[in-house]
Fold these 2 entries.
Entry 1:
Amino acid sequence: MNANSQANHTENQLSKIILDAAFRVHTKTGLGLLETVYEVILAHELRKQGLQVQRQVPIRIKYDELEFDEGFRADLLVEDKVIVELKSVEKLVPVHSKQLLTQLRLGERRLGLLINFGEIHLKNGIERTANGLADETPPSFGHKLLSFFASLAPFA
């Protein structure tokens, strides 16, 4: 059993594991396959890491204390925390990001990854979408400097 299965990973830690696996899949398979192929293979890679992965998870619409079945399906749900939406298209378009954000909000999850296996260089086909999740990386020097100058504004 892999050590990953025994740890309670944060969304950001899972994100790194998922992206590492996606890069392995893209390297081995290349681009141009249908989305379902990447879904099956990526789920397999993540399970090899000891992670719980569900495919085609229904996400219902909740409104006025009712649930509607006409919701969406998340391609992958990893450790019941991170939604992974997969594409195999020439270029991502804004509706793909909107689809992921909708799934995050309706599914009450904090982090989603949009991965386009149709890109020659996979790094160009990855979008990270947070729904109320703070980034674990410390602010950059430029961000700190900007915050410092903004704090001086009332004195100007």
Entry 2:
Amino acid sequence: MNKHLHAKHRVFLLLFPLLLILAGCEINDFDGDPNSEYRESFLFTKAVGARSELFISNVNGAVMIIGVDTLNEVRISGSKIVKDQSDDEARRHIVDIEIDMQESPSTLTIKTLQPNTSGRRTYQVNYEVMIPSSWRVTVSNVNGNVDIQNIRNTVSTTVVNGTVNATEIAGNVSVTVTNGVISGKVQIRENGSCAFNLVNGNATLLVPRTTSASVTATVTLGTVSVSNLPIVYSTNTRTSVTGIVGAGKGTIRLSSVNGVVQLLGF
């Protein structure tokens, strides 16, 4: 009987290390979030020609657009990024990301192409685009910040999750964000318009004190304020402001469901 027990004991001792190894392999198969990253930079240039408009559509990542007063060619630079379970896997899947560019006589369209579903693997593209400051700009981004600087034309931006910063803009502006923040410094032209719309987040707009526009600023949950502007109020409550600045020729529309909305003069 004792010999039989000792034999079983010896078998268990021999198998125990193997069981530990197998258990360790199983745990590694269910490792957590991707922790290896591979980056690939890109740079393209396009002749300005007779074009006057930029469209850019991104999925995940930051988009920066800079207007330059004198520019002979458009410069598109940035980085493609893949995060995966290993360095080899991240490097192997960098080819999944494509930068698609379509050119017409009047417009340049840039679009990020990547797989719709990727499991635990993540894809990201960061852009920096330099264009003539006289171009119109339209940007769509799902997850990531958008920064637009020094544009003297119409700017339109839509972001699901992220921050939009539009500074030194002279022209019509339309920004829609689902979750995030909008900030802008805009010179609204005569009969021009500026609209910031959010679901969750804060909006801050700076305009010259000489601006001529009707103003509507509202929140459902939060506060609205107007400072350092010669506004004649029609409504002035904690959650709603309407009024006229200057001759009221243009329009300013600011709204957030949950957040703080501020209109400031400079």
